[in-house]
C-alpha cells in the first residue's frame, strides 16, 4: 500500500526554536491520524507543510509519492469554525461551490454541472435543508458540515482537519467527527486531524502524533496516551487517567495552553 | 429665497427635451459609472473596504487638486493619487486593524494636501468645488470615450479574477489552502479599486464616492444573499442612482451629487425595511420539516 502522506527526516526550526526534528512518518489510505499537542507545538504548522504553505527546514514531505505542492486537488482542508458576518452574500451552497471551482479564473459558466456536484455534496453531509440559507445565519455545527462538504469537493485522498470541532457543542462534535470518519473508512481517504482534545474522536483514531516541547511520539492512542510517554514528552509528571473510555490528562505544565483539555477534565464532561 | 424659488432651483423641468439632448454624454457616463460602481461595490463590501474607499478618494482629490494647480490633466492627477493610495493600503494593510489605522493616517494627509493645492490655485472657483462634490454636466465625447475605455478595462480585469477573488474575500483560509494567490489578488483588487474611485470622483466628487461604491452593494446585501442576485441588484441600484440623479439634476443649477446620493440613500433605506421584514418573518431559505 502506498502511503498518502510520507515524511522523511522532516524537521522544522524557526530561528533557535525547533518544533520537531527527524520526523519519519507514513500515513496510509483509510487511516485516521490525529495530531495532538499544546499550543505552539507546531500542530498547525504540520498541516501547513502538507498544504505546501510551509517549507521544511530539512527532509522531504511527499503526497501520493510526489513532493507536496500548493493547492493540490488531492487534499481537502477543513478549517476551524469561524463566524461569518451575517450580511456575507454567500449561501450554504455557494460556500460548497467555492470548494468545487472557486480557485479557477473567470466567472462560473455552465453552472449546471457545478450545481449537480454541490447538490451531491450537500446530500452527503446532510445539509440539503439549509442549502439556501446565508452562511452567516447557520450554527457552528451546520457550518462545519458545509466545511466537510467543501473539502470533499475535489474527491481528495487526504483530509486535513485543523481543529474542526473547536467551539462546537457535544452533539455537533459527534456529528462532524462521525462524518469525517465516514469519509475516512468508507471512501478510504486518509484523515489528518489536528486537535487539542482527543476524546471526541477517540473511537475513530488509528494513530496519533503527539508534539510537545520540540519532541514528538507516534503510535496508537494506547501507546502514546500514557502517563509515562506524556511525562517524558513534557519533561514533568503528567497523569493520564482513563474513565468511561475517555482520557483525562492531568497536570500539564502549562495550564493556559491546555485550557481546553484542562477545563473539561475539571468539569468532568467531554469537551 | 422663498420656498417656491428653492424648489425651483432643486427641481426644474423646463425645456427638458432640449436639455436631455445636450447632456447625453453625461447620462452615458453616469450609466458606465453605475455599472462599474455596482460591480466593484460587491467586492468592497465582501472585503470590508468601505473605509478604504473613503481614504483612497481623499488622496485622489489631492492628486486632482495638484493637477489643477499645475495645469495638468485632472483625471490623470486623480488617477495617480488614488492608485498610489490603493497600492499603499494593499501592501501595508494586510490585517484589518493595520488597514484602518493606515487609512486614518492617510486620509487627513490627503485632504490637507488637496486643500493646500486648491488654496494655491487661482483659477475658477467652480473647478475647485467640482473636485469635492462632482460635476458631470460638461462631459465631452472624448472624455466619455476615455472613461468608458477605462471602465471596460477595469471590468474585464474584475471578471477575469472574479471567482478566486470571491474565494479569497469570503473564505481566505481555505482559499489559501487551495492555492489561491490571496495576497496578489488583494493587491490587484486595490489597483482596480483605485482606478474605479478616480473615475467615480468625476461624477459624485471625492466626498461622496461612497454613494456609488458602497451604498448600492450594501443595499443589495440587505435583501438577498444569493451572490448572483447581489451583483445584479447592486448594478441596478447604482445605475438607477447615477442616471436618475443626472435626469433629476438636469433642470436645476445645483451639482449633481446630492441627487445621486439621495436616490442611493433612499434605495438603501427601502432595502433595509424589506430585509428587516424578511428577517422578522424568519425567511432565510431554510426548509423546515415537520417532525
UniProtKB/TrEMBL annotation, chain A:
<dbReference type="Pfam" id="PF00005">
    <property type="entry name" value="ABC_tran"/>
</dbReference>
<comment type="similarity">
    <text>Belongs to the ABC transporter superfamily.</text>
</comment>
<dbReference type="InterPro" id="IPR003593">
    <property type="entry name" value="AAA+_ATPase"/>
</dbReference>
<dbReference type="InterPro" id="IPR050153">
    <property type="entry name" value="Metal_Ion_Import_ABC"/>
</dbReference>
<dbReference type="InterPro" id="IPR017871">
    <property type="entry name" value="ABC_transporter-like_CS"/>
</dbReference>
<feature type="domain" description="ABC transporter">
    <location>
        <begin position="5"/>
        <end position="238"/>
    </location>
</feature>
<keyword id="KW-0547">Nucleotide-binding</keyword>
<keyword id="KW-0067">ATP-binding</keyword>
<dbReference type="InterPro" id="IPR027417">
    <property type="entry name" value="P-loop_NTPase"/>
</dbReference>
<dbReference type="GO" id="GO:0005524">
    <property type="term" value="F:ATP binding"/>
</dbReference>
<dbReference type="GO" id="GO:0016887">
    <property type="term" value="F:ATP hydrolysis activity"/>
</dbReference>
<dbReference type="InterPro" id="IPR003439">
    <property type="entry name" value="ABC_transporter-like_ATP-bd"/>
</dbReference>
<keyword id="KW-0813">Transport</keyword>
<protein>
    <submittedName>
        <fullName>Zinc/manganese transport system ATP-binding protein</fullName>
    </submittedName>
</protein>
UniProtKB/TrEMBL annotation, chain B:
<keyword id="KW-1133">Transmembrane helix</keyword>
<feature type="transmembrane region" description="Helical">
    <location>
        <begin position="101"/>
        <end position="121"/>
    </location>
</feature>
<comment type="similarity">
    <text>Belongs to the ABC-3 integral membrane protein family.</text>
</comment>
<feature type="transmembrane region" description="Helical">
    <location>
        <begin position="229"/>
        <end position="250"/>
    </location>
</feature>
<dbReference type="GO" id="GO:0055085">
    <property type="term" value="P:transmembrane transport"/>
</dbReference>
<dbReference type="InterPro" id="IPR037294">
    <property type="entry name" value="ABC_BtuC-like"/>
</dbReference>
<feature type="transmembrane region" description="Helical">
    <location>
        <begin position="142"/>
        <end position="165"/>
    </location>
</feature>
<feature type="transmembrane region" description="Helical">
    <location>
        <begin position="66"/>
        <end position="89"/>
    </location>
</feature>
<feature type="transmembrane region" description="Helical">
    <location>
        <begin position="27"/>
        <end position="45"/>
    </location>
</feature>
<protein>
    <submittedName>
        <fullName>Zinc/manganese transport system permease protein</fullName>
    </submittedName>
</protein>
<dbReference type="GO" id="GO:0043190">
    <property type="term" value="C:ATP-binding cassette (ABC) transporter complex"/>
</dbReference>
<keyword id="KW-0812">Transmembrane</keyword>
<keyword id="KW-0813">Transport</keyword>
<feature type="transmembrane region" description="Helical">
    <location>
        <begin position="256"/>
        <end position="275"/>
    </location>
</feature>
<dbReference type="Pfam" id="PF00950">
    <property type="entry name" value="ABC-3"/>
</dbReference>
<keyword id="KW-0472">Membrane</keyword>
<dbReference type="GO" id="GO:0010043">
    <property type="term" value="P:response to zinc ion"/>
</dbReference>
<dbReference type="InterPro" id="IPR001626">
    <property type="entry name" value="ABC_TroCD"/>
</dbReference>
<feature type="transmembrane region" description="Helical">
    <location>
        <begin position="185"/>
        <end position="217"/>
    </location>
</feature>
Amino acid at each position: 500500500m502506498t502511503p498518502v502522506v510520507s515524511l522523511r527526516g522532516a524537521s522544522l526550526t524557526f530561528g533557535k526554536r525547533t518544533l520537531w526534528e527527524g520526523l519519519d512518518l507514513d500515513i496510509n489510505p483509510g487511516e485516521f491520524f490525529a495530531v495532538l499537542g499544546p499550543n505552539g507545538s507546531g500542530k498547525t504548522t504540520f498541516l501547513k507543510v502538507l498544504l505546501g504553505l510551509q517549507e521544511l527546514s530539512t527532509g522531504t514531505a511527499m503526497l501520493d509519492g510526489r513532493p507536496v505542492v500548493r493547492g493540490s486537488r488531492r487534499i481537502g482542508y477543513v478549517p476551524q469554525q469561524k463566524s461569518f458576518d451575517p450580511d456575507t452574500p454567500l449561501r450554504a451552497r455557494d460556500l460548497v461551490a467555492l470548494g468545487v471551482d472557486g480557485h479557477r479564473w473567470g466567472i462560473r459558466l455552465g453552472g449546471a454541472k457545478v450545481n449537480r456536484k454541490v447538490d451531491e455534496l450537500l446530500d452527503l453531509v446532510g445539509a440539503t435543508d439549509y442549502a439556501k440559507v446565508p452562511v452567516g445565519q447557520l450554527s457552528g455545527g451546520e457550518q462545519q458540515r458545509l466545511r466537510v462538504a467543501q473539502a470533499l469537493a475535489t474527491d481528495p485522498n487526504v483530509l486535513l482537519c485543523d481543529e474542526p470541532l473547536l467551539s462546537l457543542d457535544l452533539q455537533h462534535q459527534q456529528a462532524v467527527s462521525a462524518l469525517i470518519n465516514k469519509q475516512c473508512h468508507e471512501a478510504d481517504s486518509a484523515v489528518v486531524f489536528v486537535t487539542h482534545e482527543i476524546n471526541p474522536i477517540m473511537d475513530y483514531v488509528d494513530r496519533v502524533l503527539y508534539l510537545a516541547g520540540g519532541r514528538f511520539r507516534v503510535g496508537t492512542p494506547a501507546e502514546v496516551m500514557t502517563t509515562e510517554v506524556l511525562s517524558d514528552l513534557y519533561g514533568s509528571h503528567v497523569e493520564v487517567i482513563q474513565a468511561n473510555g475517555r482520557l483525562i490528562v492531568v497536570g500539564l505544565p502549562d495550564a493556559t495552553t491546555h485550557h481546553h483539555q484542562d477545563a473539561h477534565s475539571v468539569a468532568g464532561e467531554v469537551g | 429665497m422663498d420656498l417656491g424659488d428653492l424648489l425651483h432651483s432643486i427641481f426644474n423641468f423646463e425645456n427638458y427635451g432640449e436639455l436631455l439632448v445636450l447632456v447625453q454624454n453625461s447620462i452615458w457616463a453616469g450609466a458606465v459609472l453605475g455599472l462599474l460602481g455596482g460591480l466593484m461595490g460587491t467586492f468592497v463590501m465582501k472585503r470590508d473596504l468601505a473605509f478604504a474607499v473613503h481614504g483612497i478618494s481623499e488622496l485622489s482629490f489631492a492628486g486632482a487638486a495638484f493637477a489643477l494647480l499645475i495645469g495638468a490633466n485632472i483625471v490623470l492627477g486623480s488617477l495617480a493619487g488614488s492608485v498610489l493610495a490603493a497600492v499603499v493600503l494593499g501592501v501595508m494593510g494586510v490585517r484589518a486593524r493595520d488597514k484602518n489605522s493606515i487609512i486614518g493616517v492617510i486620509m487627513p494627509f490627503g485632504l490637507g494636501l488637496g486643500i493646500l493645492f486648491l488654496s494655491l490655485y487661482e483659477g475658477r472657483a467652480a473647478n475647485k468645488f467640482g473636485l469635492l462634490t462632482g460635476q458631470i454636466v460638461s462631459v465631452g465625447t472624448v472624455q466619455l470615450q476615455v472613461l468608458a475605455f477605462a471602465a471596460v478595462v477595469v471590468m474585464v480585469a474584475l471578471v477575469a479574477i472574479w471567482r478566486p477573488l470571491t474565494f479569497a474575500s469570503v473564505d481566505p483560509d481555505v482559499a489559501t489552502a487551495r492555492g489561491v494567490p490571496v495576497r496578489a489578488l488583494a493587491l490587484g483588487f486595490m489597483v482596480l479599486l483605485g482606478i474605479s474611485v478616480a473615475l467615480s470622483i468625476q461624477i459624485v466628487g471625492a466626498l461622496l464616492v461612497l454613494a456609488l461604491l458602497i451604498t448600492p452593494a450594501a443595499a443589495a446585501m440587505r435583501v438577498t444573499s444569493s451572490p448572483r442576485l447581489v451583483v445584479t441588484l447592486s448594478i441596478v441600484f447604482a445605475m438607477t442612482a447615477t442616471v436618475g440623479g443626472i435626469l433629476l439634476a438636469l433642470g436645476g443649477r445645483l451639482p449633481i451629487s446630492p441627487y445621486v446620493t439621495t436616490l442611493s440613500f433612499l434605495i438603501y433605506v427601502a432595502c433595509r425595511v424589506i430585509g428587516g421584514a424578511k428577517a422578522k418573518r424568519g425567511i432565510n431559505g431554510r426548509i423546515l420539516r415537520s417532525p
